[in-house]
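Contributing new records

If you add data, match the layout below exactly. Sequence lines come first and carry their own label; structure lines follow with theirs. Keep one chain per record. Anything else will be rejected by the validation script.
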Amino acid sequence: MATAASKESEILENAKNLLPPDYVPSEDEEYMNERHQAYFRMLLIEWKRSIRDAAEHTLQSLADGPIREADLNDRASSETDWGIELRTRDRQRKLVSKIDSALRRIDEGEYGYCEVTGDPIGLRRLIARPVATMTVEAQEAHERREKVSRDD
């Protein structure tokens, strides 16, 4: 784990060195050029790091001990809060695999292109959802098909 984290830190530093501090990808540049890729790589690694930090904080809180509320209502409230926290961490665990997949697509030169149509996803969509794998149109069509399947 330590070697993966150090490798990730090295990759992050290389990405940061390619970009000015206030850089934001622009439609005026060639799509998915080296700077775009460095920007999204940096964004994804930072996002992954923040998720890991939050998970470590949750694990530390759990390790600190069980809920010790004397009042049953307070205990129920605390248990509900923990349940929500654990569900959030589970969703974030799934998000980390999507982040890893996006980082692999950057390495393979496939990032930013729709997995269905092959068209560019678009910078605005990727900035809003860096793990996006489809254009808005392809995603909407996918969701319509999914809804029809559920209705059957």
